Amino acid sequence: MKRFVLGIFIISSFVISPLQTSATTMPCSMVLEPIDKKLTNAKGTALVYKVQLRPQSFVRTNVSILGVHLPEPSSYGNYDSYEGFAFIPDEISWRFRLYPSPEKDSPTWAGKFDEITAEIENVEVQVRLSNLKNEKLGPSILRSNIKYCK
Most exposed: 13, 43, 74, 76, by fewest CB within 10 Å? Predict the structure, then answer.
């Protein structure tokens, strides 16, 4: 009888449990790799997880980015900062400022965005150059896709 009950339990756990979807399991993190392979020391990471900021608010997704050993933004032209940029192709994008640490040589750039309400599937996360004065977003320096989030 015990084997029968155990067998029913095992079979029901496969049948009743939700099937694995293409959605990313959260929390997760991913390594952001440089676009330009000459930037051998430049790396980043993105942390993606669900947050509920106020007791009566609904759950949203947070994306936090940290970038290290990035070149001085001005070395690429008329740029003075970096921004985090996440997007679902042909659907929606989010951009947020990354702030440098106080280190004089090669600061760490970090920032976060807490207001994502869309399903987090097929999202690309990037660190991009930015001009704060004219709000121009420049090319991507680091990137990864949510499918590599672990």
Answer: 13
